[in-house]
Amino acid sequence: MNDSTGTGTSSGASAPTAHASGAPAPAPAPAPAAPAAPAAPAVPAAPALRVERLRKKYGSVTALEEVSFSVGRGEIVGLLGPNGAGKTTTINMILGVLEPTAGRVTIDEIDIAKDRARALARTNFAAVYAALPGNLTVAENLRFFGLLYAVDSLKRRVEELLREFDLERLRDTRCGLLSSGEQTRAALAKALINRPRLLLLDEPTASLDPSAAQIIRERIKNLAARGGCGILWTSHNMHEVQAVCDRVLFLSQGRVLLEGDPNTLPQEHGAQSLEDLFIRVAREPLEQAEGSVP
Length: 294
Ligand code: ATP
Prior knowledge:
This protein is an alpha/beta fold. Helices cover 31% and strands 21% of the residues.
């Protein structure tokens, strides 16, 4: 799902030659089709997110050491790592909640430090720990966030999302009364209200039953494929990551230790599965950082 970099080729049609023999000239061949206009050189689309040499220190604690990566349009990237690796710190800096000690975050080509409002207008977020206001109903919450993001045709957008996330019968229920799975669906609907170019999902299926989780995974995959939205997905469920992510980044002790296709990365590093690789990376981060393991 990465940016397409295919180049067009133009077939050069040679000019017809004069008939040199005495035989009657054959009927003229149909005029060759006008050569197609030369294809414009393929310009790779700018990524939805670019993180450059991002660093965060909390006093004397270095939570993140010069982390760099990008998320392409239509790409789903898994941000993996053991507890304390720096995932939340990274997400909070992308969301502009935390100020980096050094480095740069660019969303849809907009430097968040220079034009935070415009960058964040293209972003949205869902996490289990970021519950929607519990005293507002599902529909009120969607409307509230839609107004914050100045969404066009908001009434229609709210109805679309209520339908898409199977929330119509819950529209007038206060979010504080929803089951955790229903809250997750409402949070995902809210996360799409502004049709974000970059979507940050922190364990989006953690509280869903297997059937609901599968439906949500498919919806999010479709969203990336159809809408060209870049998605950064954190999860501790390696089967899910393999099913959903185009690429994964393994973060440990504030550094990106490994990066690649979740379906081939384990074999490339002699691991049985992504889960085995995760466990190895989590337990032996320093050796890997030095390139000796795996
Ligand atoms: P988890 O999977 O457990 O949520 P994480 O990968 O999201 O972990 P972070 O929450 O980003 O990890 O934390 C990275 C490191 O920074 C940890 O060592 C944590 O203790 C430290 N840290 C996070 N916030 C603060 C803070 N406000 N002050 C001091 N240290 C902090």
